[in-house]
Design goal:
Helix content of chain A: over 70%
Radius of gyration of chain B: 23 Å
Largest interface: A-B, 19 and 18 residues
Number of helices of chain B: 9
Helix content of chain B: 40-55%
Structural class of chain B: alpha+beta
Distance between the termini of chain A: 34 Å
Number of strands of chain A: 0
Structural class of chain A: mainly alpha
Oligomer: heterodimer
Order of helices and strands of chain A: HHHHHH
Number of helices of chain A: 6
Largest sheet of chain B: 5 strands, antiparallel
Shape of chain A: elongated
Order of helices and strands of chain B: HHHHEEHHEEHEEHHEEE
Strand content of chain B: 15-25%
Low-confidence stretches of chain B: none
């Protein structure tokens, strides 16, 4: 009996801990990533973005991906890769206006992705 | 975790509603666990696009639910019936309990099959028979059991309908059994829950809603099997 209660309590603690950590980690990672992309977007809008800025954003994202893959389906994480790589290339080619469209896709994805895992009726069913 | 709990509860309810013929030797909640664990463990293993953590969380959630349900099953008697069900007495002193059979999605043929598997070849060979909550079959035989099973009884009428195959096997005309029913005051064939006949001329007749009766008849031309 005591063993059962202890096992239930331990399992619930693990689950709750994992849920809280996942929520905090995913939200913070994607929020930080959003901020970085947003800065790049503003630079692109001002015409001051260079390939170094874009590469820095991509490198930071690659590092974040490593831990996000533990918590999120890999397909969702990889959704960022394509438009971000295109944006990097467009900035390198001197096409910041076109890069902005790609960065907007990335920002939108970074903003909406955590909502897909939040506790809500729509996500439950 | 909530998704897992929802699926778990839905499966548990469905297994309880399906009755005893579906579960066989496991409590409903144990069968639900068996069904779920395999899938939950398999999907993240096979699909590399899903983090393994999802499988671990689901299995852990199942563990918590199972422990809780087991505790409730052991400690809260009124809820034990809700979770695991209760034994269904399908044969009592009055014969077959048709209502209990239907509640468990069984018919007379299934019952006779269970009796045979338990070593009883005649419906009147047992005083009581029941399906336990885990789906296993138990029977309390009559004291003079050996003298009651000299020949294999066949189901001649099952739930108001003649079993043509068994009827042909007995080699006795349908009219003979209809005459027996008339003599016994059975108003219509559809009122008969079961009529079995063995090679010695012993008939087991139960009309729906009435106590069973055993009759001894002589078959035309001395037929026997």
């Amino acid at each position: 009996m005591i063993k059962s209660f202890a096992a239930i309590a331990a399992a619930l603690a693990l689950l709750a801990g994992a849920a809280v950590f996942e929520h905090c980690h995913v939200t913070r990672s994607l929020h930080d990533f959003y901020e970085e992309v947003h800065v790049l977007y503003e630079k692109a809008e001002a015409g001051t973005a260079n390939v170094g800025d874009a590469e820095a954003v991509r490198t930071a994202w690659e590092a974040r991906k490593q831990t996000l893959h533990i918590w999120l389906p890999h397909g969702d994480v990889n959704r960022m890769d394509e438009p971000l790589s295109e944006a990097v290339r467009l900035i390198a080619e001197g096409e910041p206006r076109f890069a902005m469209a790609k960065l907007e896709i990335v920002m939108h994805a970074a903003k909406t992705l955590p909502a897909g895992y939040r506790l809500s009726l729509a996500n439950l069913f | 975790m909530i998704r897992t709990a929802v699926i778990y509860l839905a499966l548990l309810i469905v297994m309880r509603l399906m009755g005893k013929r579906q579960i066989g030797e496991m409590q409903p909640f144990e069968l639900v666990i068996t069904l779920l664990i395999a899938e939950l463990a398999c999907i993240p293993m096979a699909d590399t696009s899903i983090p393994l953590l999802y499988g671990i969380v689901s299995v852990l959630a199942i563990f918590v639910l199972h422990e809780l349900v087991t505790l409730i099953d052991l400690k809260v008697k009124p809820l034990k019936t809700v979770i695991s069900g209760k034994p269904s007495v399908v044969i009592n002193k009055n014969g077959i309990d048709d209502y209990q059979l239907k509640r468990n999605r069984l018919d007379v043929s299934d019952l006779i099959g269970s009796l045979r598997a338990a070593g009883y070849f005649s419906l009147d060979a047992v005083d009581y028979a029941l399906y336990e909550s885990n789906g296993t079959f138990s029977a309390l035989p009559k004291q003079d059991l050996a003298s009651m099973q000299p020949s294999l009884p066949l189901v001649v009428i099952d739930n108001g309908k003649f079993d043509e195959k068994n009827l042909a096997f007995t080699g006795v005309e349908r009219a003979f059994f209809e005459e027996v029913l008339r003599r016994e005051g059975v108003p219509a064939l559809r009122r008969v829950l079961v009529l079995t006949a063995d090679g010695t001329g012993k008939l087991y007749l139960q009309v729906k809603g009435e106590k069973f009766r055993t009759l001894h008849v002589a078959y035309p031309n001395g037929k026997t099997w």
